[in-house]
Structure formats: structure tokens, C-alpha cells
Amino acid sequence: MTKKPKLNDEIDLIKIINLILKYKISALIIILVTFFSGIAINFSKFTEKNYKVSVNYSILYHPSRVVQLCSSIYKCMNEQISNEIITLLRDGWKFDADSQIFSLRTSSPLRTEIYKEEFDQINENLTREIYDSAVNDLIEIDKTLQNLEVNVETGFKYRDTGFNQIILKTKRLIYSIEKNQKKALYIGKIKINRIPNRIAPTLVFSLIIGVFLSILYILVSNASRSVKK
């Protein structure tokens, strides 16, 4: 009793092999037509050249409006500034806040010098905004101190240590930008790398579809012949 299922399995396997051999030419034609059709349809993708433009960055200073908007939360401030930067760049730019990388995928990249000019201009404008805001803040502080009959340049004594720290921090920021030529952003080297075309998945998929269609053809053809008989 244990040998009959095995014998039936062997018979079924022989029938399947004979069936495949019977329609082998038609099946092979279907597979080849489907395979080469997949290549023809995706030919433009095979020949297309795509590039990835990437640049590391770091945000050193934040505008006061962003600090207030994000309640001094560092991650929020970085994401806000990064979003503002990519809106000022050409379409298609993205950013990764964790790794601090701006990236762009394009089929026609520009020269690295052009990208650098764009980032430098954004950096300059952002730095100018931060500097002007700090200067205005210091002017307002100076007015407040004048009302208290205190001279900022000669020093002062004030009980609120937090207020003193704000003044010191503002002065340091102005000095860093004005004297040390510091910028709001650090922009790394711009890299342009070609993205390799992924041909293998398309070829494998076309081959699988071809095999599936050939099997379907064999089953339908065999069934129709059985009905006629």
C-alpha cells in the first residue's frame, strides 16, 4: 500500500515532463518573447544615467525666530532650518536630519561649483539674518540698561544672572560672525556619484512572467485537446 502513492507520483511526474517536452518549442518562444519584451519596455531605464548629489552639513547657529518657534529644542531647530534650506534649493533636494546630509537624485547634475554657490548664498543670507537679529537684540538690551543707568561697555551689575548670560551669549555671537567670520552653517564637500542601474531584477521578473505564461499556455492547450478528444 505504501508503494502505490510513490508510483502514482512517478507517473504524474513523467506525464508533466512529457507535456513540457511536447510544447517545449511554444513554451520557449513565449519565454523568449516575454523576456525580450521586458528588456525592450525597460530599455530606457537600462541606458538612463542617474546621479546622486550629496553634501554633509552642520547647523552652528539658529535664528532667534527658530529658537522661539521650537522652544530651544535642538532637534526641532535643526529640522526647521533644514526644511527652509531645501525649499530655497532647486526641486528634488532632501535631507537626513540624523546623518545631516542633503541629497539630490538627478539625471543631469550641475557642476559642483554651481551647487557650492547656491549653498554659500543660503549660508550667507542665514548668517546675515542671525547677525542682524543679534545686533538688534543687543540694541534693545542697551536701551533697557540705559533706563537702569548702566553702561554696557564699562560693565554692570545686575541680580538676574540669566539676563547677564543672554547679553554675554549675544555679544559672543556677534563677535564670532563679525570678527572670526563664522557662518551659520558648515557645508562639506559636494559629491556627485553615479547610481548603478539595477538591471537584474527586471530581467528576473521578465523571465518569471515568461515561465508563468508558458505554463499557462501548456495547461490551456492540453485541456482544450482533452476536451476535443
Brief overview, please?
The chain has 2 domains: 47-195; 201-229. It is built from 8 helices and 5 strands, in the order αααβααββααββα. It has helices at residues 3-22, 24-41, 43-47, 64-69, 74-88, 112-147, 161-178, 200-228; strands spanning 50-59, 94-96, 101-106, 185-187, 191-195.
Describe this structure in words.
The protein has 229 residues and is an alpha+beta fold. It contains 8 helices and 5 strands. It has 2 domains: 47-195; 201-229. Helices cover 64% and strands 12% of the residues. Helix 2 (24-41) runs antiparallel to helix 8 and helix 6 packs antiparallel against helix 7 (161-178). It starts with a helix and ends with a helix.
Low-confidence segments: none
SSE class: alpha+beta
Percentage of residues in DSSP E strands:
5-15%
Q: How helix-rich are the residues, as a percent range?
A: 55-70%
* Inertia-based shape: rod-shaped
Comma- or semicolon-separated keywords:
single chain, 229 residues, alpha+beta, 5-stranded antiparallel beta sheet, 12% strand, rod-shaped
Give the SSE map.
Layout: H1 3-22, H2 24-41, H3 43-47, E1 50-59, H4 64-69, H5 74-88, E2 94-96, E3 101-106, H6 112-147, H7 161-178, E4 185-187, E5 191-195, H8 200-228
Antiparallel strand pairs: 1-3, 1-4, 1-5, 2-3
